[in-house]
Amino acid sequence: MTVTSETEVFVGVPDTSEGWTDRAREVSNILAADALARDRAGEPPFREVQLLKDSGLVTLLGPIEFGGGGQRWETAYKVVREIARADGSIGQLLGYHYLWAWAARLVGTDPQISAVEELYTSNRFFFGGAVNPRDTDLTVVDRGDTLVFNGVKSFSTGGRVTDLTVLEGIIDGTATHVFAIVPTAQDGIVFRGDWDNLGQRLTDSGSVEVNDVEVDWASAAGFVDKEFQPLVYNTLNFPAIEIVFANFYLGIARGALDTAAEYTRTRTRPWPYGGDNREIATDEWYLREGYGDLQSKLWAAEAFVDQVSREADAVLHDARENLTEQARGDLAVRIAAAKLRAADVSLEISNKIFELTGARATSNDVGLDIYWRNIRTHTLHDPLAYKRREVGSRFLTGEIPEPTWYT
């Protein structure tokens, strides 16, 4: 069954971490069947998101009392990696969904957290966010009991396939930032449908216009009586999404390496002019050496990212008041290093596999290019050089990153 046919029927909701990763593997296998065709069609991934909803994966982090999985981030990272193995775009969408579903915990008050988690979990709603920091902020006007958002964002991942959208802007006449979660389906949110990029083609990450979107002050995340209640925990937004990046990069890399290896086993021909001729390609010494090199690098990157994922999990699930600036900075550096390893290894694998599969593997019907296109596109999200600098600064001088939109 492919994702473009009738929806798969999933029985029950898993109640263990292992059960959720098994469920993710089921979904991944469905997505893998026609991932290349869907990528080339470039249609908004409504069916794919419905598959995530039907499988229950969208509620993995949601409270059990509202029908969610009650799982931890460590499981969510594994699930994102498994989905990205089959379809990098959908892995990214699910990872972003988890981050935005956690946004209330990052900056909200206790009543806001409860309300948002009940809303999205009980309805299996899917999140997106119009929060691109490189753009001019949305303008937010205080009208007494409500706030009104206006402006344009050049990227809004998930766009048309989401149920809820996170907005962020600056209150007019102040330097105060404010987040709010709003229903996506409303006249004031207009997606332009202009995402037409090299890779991650099904993330529907195009631009969005926000026109007079009104929000009650009670929904302004983290505000009490129009005053924001700051915590160091509020600044975890970017580190939390960067470790998601590392995991779906490794998922794409795993998909690339496994797909290439299967091609080599079944279709690559041995080279007949090397003076050490072999009957089958898998007996070629240079192919064994090449795959051995890539597999060992991927195993090493997976082990490191797993360790940092556990560190992030421990911080994200700890009491919010416990996080210090030093602990936050140390985690941010570790996440930067994990992202670097994942990006570098994934770029190497998605490029090197062509040398190991042979000239005929460049045929469009094979589709190995999807992995490189996806990795190359998203690893440009923010400059890797700055991640290296953060790690180097911590190592040489003990300096930790100052919290910004990108650190």
Automatic annotation (TrEMBL):
Domain Acyl-CoA dehydrogenase/oxidase N-terminal: 30-112
Domain of life: Bacteria
Entry-linked Gene3D superfamilies: Acyl-CoA dehydrogenase/oxidase, N-terminal domain, Butyryl-CoA Dehydrogenase, subunit A, domain 2, Butyryl-CoA Dehydrogenase, subunit A, domain 3
InterPro entries (UniProt xref): Acyl-CoA_DH_C, Acyl-CoA_Oxase/DH_mid-dom_sf, AcylCo_DH-like_C, AcylCoA_DH/ox_N, AcylCoA_DH/ox_N_sf, AcylCoA_DH/oxidase_NM_dom_sf
The UniProt record lists the keyword Oxidoreductase: yes
Keywords: Flavoprotein, Monooxygenase, Oxidoreductase
Database matches in Pfam families: Acyl-CoA_dh_2, Acyl-CoA_dh_N
One GO-annotated biological process of the protein: L-leucine catabolic process
Domain Acyl-CoA dehydrogenase C-terminal: start-end pairs: 243-381
Protein name, as recorded: Putative FMNH2-dependent monooxygenase
Protein's organism: Rhodococcus erythropolis (strain PR4 / NBRC 100887)
Species lineage: Bacteria, Bacillati, Actinomycetota, Actinomycetes, Mycobacteriales
